[in-house]
Amino acid sequence: MSSTVRDLMHQGLIACPPNASLGEVAAMLDRHHIHAVIVADNPKKPLGIISDFDLLAGEWLSVDDQSLEAMRRMTAHDLMTSPIETLDVSTSIEDAAGMMVQKKVHRMVVIENDAPSGVVSISDFVANIASREKARRDTVGNVMSDAFLVCRDQTPIISAARTMTQAGWRSVVVVDSQGKPLGVVTGNDLMKFAGKRVEETLTVSEVMSRELLTVDMNASLQEAADLMVQNHKHRVSVVDKDDPGSFPLGVISSFDIVAEMARPGSIWQG
Q1: If DSSP codes are grouped into helix, strand and coil, which group holds residue 85?
Q2: Segments in the chain below pLDDT 70
Q3: Which of 178, 240, 244, 182 is nearest to 211 (CA)?
């Protein structure tokens, strides 16, 4: 590839002030259909970045009045990640993918003429792959994650959120007592509870997305990328097309695809 980050990035920065409440941050993420916002008084001088995962890690899903009140007093500045990872606008796509995998980040601020000019995220890399007309020979089964989070449909969302935080995952597959997939709960599904008290009896079955996106393990990476882009998802469950209702074989994420893209010797490097 000869393209640079300039060809992938989103121009401009969506920012919130440092004193924005966590509820306001959640509303902004939902409104713009994004996973993170820059924290800054001046967009040209960002202080940090706060993501949907930071909100989950902050345990704002509170069941007692004391912790709920403490959460309501917290601001974007309290939970943001700082300093922000950056890269130059002229960085090649291959090098940028390698940097993101090495640093284990999902997005980076793009610098041009010593000033922030936009953001590039894993979703942008996936969209780039999906736009290619030539099919790639790599398959979903080659790069999928065999391990993934799963829970029963009667699991409290408090437990699911804490497990997602501890495991570093943004989603959990929901199954019934026989292991049949019923849906998925993502960080976005939990955003609606920001700033609210959550009842301990509220279960994942009441908030999950019942349309569980699936892809066959023999599908190409391009097919998986297309599915993610078209449905604005970062993860897709991998199934056997001959038995689609059985327990998933694994999960493939946008990060899995970018990691393959950055791997030395990968066909994406050719």
Answers
A1: coil
A2: 1-2, 56-65, 67-68, 129-137, 194-196, 258, 261-270
A3: 182
- How many CB atoms within 10 Å of residue 137? 8
Amino acid identity, residue 245? G
Which residues, at least 6 apart from 116, have a Cβ–Cβ distance to it below 8 Å? Answer: 13, 38, 43, 44, 46, 86, 109, 110
* DSSP assignment of 137-201: S-BHHHH-BS---EEETT-BHHHHHHHHHHHT-SEEEEE-TT--EEEEEEHHHHGGGTTS---TT
Under 8 Å between Cβ of 130 and 225: yes
CB 239 within 8 A of CB 214: yes
As a whole number of angstroms, the distance between CA 65 and CA 37 comes to 28
Pairing label, strands 214-216, 250-253: unpaired
Which residue has 């920065």 as its token pair?
13
The answer, as to whether pTM is greater than 0.85, is no
Contact assessment for residue 57 and residue 169, using Cβ atoms and an 8 Å cutoff: no
pLDDT digits (tens, 9 = 90+) for 120-161: 988 888 777 666 544 444 788 888 888 888 999 999 988 888
Give the span between the Cα atoms of 114 and 118, in whole angstroms: 12
pLDDT averaged over every residue in the chain: 81
Backbone angles phi, psi at 235, to 5 degrees: -140, 145
CB 173 within 8 A of CB 164: no
